[in-house]
């Protein structure tokens, strides 16, 4: 029963099954280095990897673990079990279970497993999320920014501080970078600030390019 172990810090447990990839299987397992966790977190498909990247960038997420437990239940005919994809601890202390599957890959057995998981989460006061395909433009941009997620990309601090000053009024990515200094040094810091949310851009409106409008966090886009 999940209710008997709801106080367990599932964000800190080991996965209940290994992450491996076998030739000829549809999944693609791997390990993603999460800056939230400062450790690797497992995934079993590209779709799970993308969701993991989005969770890693979400400022409301404080911890993530993959396949943290087996949920057991009886469906009236036989015993069933399901290992949810992710356990997420939010900044509020609230817990969220995230299961990842594309709509066109959902069969009846999977729908039943997700429904049972959602019911168990409701019983213990947890959130449940079924995540499908993310917005493709947003995801392409966030994948790019994830290359610059590590803290070392935000240095030197003087460059980061100067970028925040320059983008206090919205301007194009290329123009702002040029005002700060050598783009080879400046752009990794700029992308790190976009990853961390200290700088903002419309990541769903189009792929990031030299003319993309960037502004400091808390500022509104303005036209003029």
How would you summarize this macromolecular structure in one to three sentences?
This protein has 224 residues and is an alpha+beta fold.
Blueprint (SSEs and pairs):
Blueprint lengths: L29 E5 L4 E5 L2 H12 L3 E6 L4 E4 L4 E4 L3 E5 L4 E6 L7 H17 L2 E5 L4 H11 L10 H10 L4 E2 H8 L2 H14 L2 E3 L11 E4 L8
Parallel strand pairs: 7-8
Antiparallel strand pairs: 1-2, 3-6, 4-5, 6-7, 9-11, 10-11
Helix pairs in contact: 1-3, 4-5, 5-6
Q: How would you portray this structure in words?
A:
By secondary structure, the protein is α+β, with helices and mostly antiparallel strands. The chain folds into 2 domains: 2-131, Trna Endonuclease, Chain: A, domain 1, CATH 3.40.1350; 136-216, Orthogonal Bundle (Arc Repressor Mutant, subunit A). Helix content is 32%, strand content 22%. It has 6 helices and 11 strands. A 4-stranded mixed β-sheet has the order 3-6-7-8, with helices on both faces. The longest helix has 17 residues, at 108-124. It is elongated, with a radius of gyration of 20 Å. It comes from Streptomyces pluripotens. This is TnsA endonuclease N-terminal domain-containing protein. Residues 58-129 form the TnsA endonuclease N-terminal domain.
């Amino acid at each position: 029963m999940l209710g008997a172990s709801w106080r367990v810090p599932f964000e800190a447990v080991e996965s209940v099954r290994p992450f491996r990839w076998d030739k000829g299987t549809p999944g693609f397992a791997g390990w993603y280095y999460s800056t939230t966790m400062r450790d690797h977190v497992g995934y079993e498909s590209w779709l799970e990897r993308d969701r993991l990247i989005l969770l890693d960038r979400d400022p409301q997420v404080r911890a993530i673990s993959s396949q943290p437990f087996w949920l057991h239940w009886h469906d009236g005919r036989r015993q069933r079990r399901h290992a949810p994809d992710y356990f997420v601890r939010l900044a509020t202390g609230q817990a969220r279970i995230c299961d990842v599957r594309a709509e066109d890959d959902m069969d009846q057995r999977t729908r039943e497993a997700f429904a049972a998981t959602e019911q168990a989460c409701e019983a213990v006061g947890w959130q449940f999320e079924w995540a499908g395909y993310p917005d493709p433009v947003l995801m392409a941009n966030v994948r790019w920014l994830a290359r610059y997620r590590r803290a070392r990309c935000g240095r030197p601090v003087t460059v980061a501080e100067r970028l925040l000053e320059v983008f206090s009024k919205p301007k194009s990515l290329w123009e702002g970078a040029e005002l700060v200094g050598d783009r080879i040094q400046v752009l990794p810091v700029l992308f790190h600030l976009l990853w961390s949310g200290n700088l903002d851009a419309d990541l769903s409106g189009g792929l990031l390019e030299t003319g993309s409008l960037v502004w400091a966090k808390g500022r509104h886009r303005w036209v003029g």
